[in-house]
Design brief:
About 0% of the residues lie in helices and about 55% in strands. The protein is an all-beta fold and about 60 residues long. It is globular. It comes from Escherichia coli.
Length: about 60
């Protein structure tokens, strides 16, 4: 699944349970060699969000 605007293209990756696993955003002004911005998500066995992590290794831990 993806969304395009004049400024960017954002792709969304889901698993079989329809949980969001990854968001990738590439800005229209980015050079071809520029890496997209990526956020990865992890969940517990009940499907509750545990972590969000960027490719720069910035990590948010969600407490349940």
């Amino acid at each position: 699944m993806a969304k395009e605007t004049a400024d960017s293209r954002t792709e969304y990756v889901y698993d079989a349970a329809d949980l969001l696993l990854e968001i990738r955003c590439r800005w229209s002004y980015a050079r071809e060699t520029d890496a997209p911005e990526i956020i990865c998500f992890s969940y517990d066995r009940l499907g509750q969000l545990l972590t969000e992590e960027t490719v720069q290794k910035f990590k948010i831990i969600h407490l349940t």
